[in-house]
Amino acid sequence: MLLSALLGAVGCVSALAQTNVYSANAVGYVNVTLYPGFNLVTDPLIATPNNAISNLLVNTNGQYKGWTVFFYNPLNATPYSFDSGIKSAWANGGGGTETINPGQAVWINNPSNTTYSITFVGTVPTSVTTPLYHNAFNLVGSAIPASGDMVTNSLMLFSNATKGDSVFTYNPTLGTPYTLYSATGKGITTNWASGNPQIPWVGAGLWYENSAGTNNQWVQNYSVSQ
Question: What's this model's pTM, rounded to 2 decimal places?
């Protein structure tokens, strides 16, 4: 379901100033917990001015020193690139210019022994098409701030899976953190082995293995009336 705190901030700035003018978009925030070690994360909001790492994880005071963000591009021969936090900036992978846009997921390594909570702020997208490249793993996430069942939740609806496709979700709090869901039919409600793919919380990323010979898409749409 959509994050309740997010919808508590629906409207434009004028609406927050207690006028009667409202935006067609929902704006708000998503809190994501980053546990020690690796975390699979997505930002389902459109941030201002952009969704660059240096804007989402502001490292001016060095609080993310030693942290690393890993990106994955299934079209590259060496698909991983990374940004590493230093005292006042990000380095080694673009100086924090890499992005976490809605629909895209990344690995964030928290090298400390402390659990952190980060807050993504922005606008809920109204329509996002996330590519799922064929014969490849895709590091993706719900482009709408929602969690739960990818098949029956209309906000995350994904019903065009190909037989043999797999979804891997990751929970860093579990002893065996990966959960595998495999499409045994067409990806409809009853045709996923081990239950329907479940996104454990808002802001969680996932691996999607497209086993077909053609590219696929995860299309998501949202309006404030939902």
Answer: 0.86
How far out from the chain centre does Cα 159 lie?
19
Q: What is the rounded distance in angstroms from the CA atom of residue 197 to the CA atom of residue 183?
A: 9
Q: Which of 129, 140, 122 is nearest to 45 (CA)?
A: 122
Largest CA distance in the chain: 53
CB distance 226 to 154 below 8 Å: yes
Close Cβ partners of 103 (under 8 Å, ≥ 6 residues apart): 42, 128, 129, 130, 140, 141, 142, 143, 218, 220
**Backbone phi, psi, residue 36, to 5°:** -55, 135
Q: What is the rounded distance in angstroms from the CA atom of residue 148 to the CA atom of residue 53? A: 26
Question: What residues form DSSP beta bridges with 180?
Answer: 168
Instruction: Indicate the residue type of 142.
Output: S
Which position has the higher pLDDT, 3 or 41?
A: 41
Cis peptide leading into residue 177 (ω within 30°):
no
> pLDDT tens digits for 153-195?
888 888 788 889 999 999 998 888 999 999 988 777 778 888 8
